[in-house]
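Section 5.1 Outputs to date
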Amino acid sequence: MTIWEKLYIPAIAKGMAITFKHIFRKKPTINYPEQTRPFSPVFRGVQVLNRDEEGRERCTACGLCAVACPAEAITMEAAERLPGEEHLYREEKYAVKYEINMLRCIFCGLCEEACPKDAVYLSETMVPSNYNRKTFIYGKQELLIPNPLTDPEAFAKARGKRPEKHD
């Protein structure tokens, strides 16, 4: 070994050159609350129960989403629409109880594909964290999208960039 190699000067200079090179590079991290990273166009987030253009619920409680779910995260109970409720529900049968256990959900999208009425879809929203297990069981009121007639801004925000499907 030469005297230079014994003093480690070339190795120290090489290490310092690498360090200075990394100082001027763009940082790969972001400041999360102030900045958000763009998600993939195929990102699957929280499930949403959709409404039609008139604000009526699209879900007919057929149960295909619950059958298609490999994690068995969806439970529902059906009921018949009463006279005078035509403005609330699209079909004669509707879901009285609709729950998704987000701790069991694997975000596969099979519920969205199985739904013939485009009533269930996976939104662009991430599931918020929490310390209580019971808050991860979302009921119908948490899943239902805002009414487009009474709150069009919230409806558009909840809908996201998703294209509209027509029956």
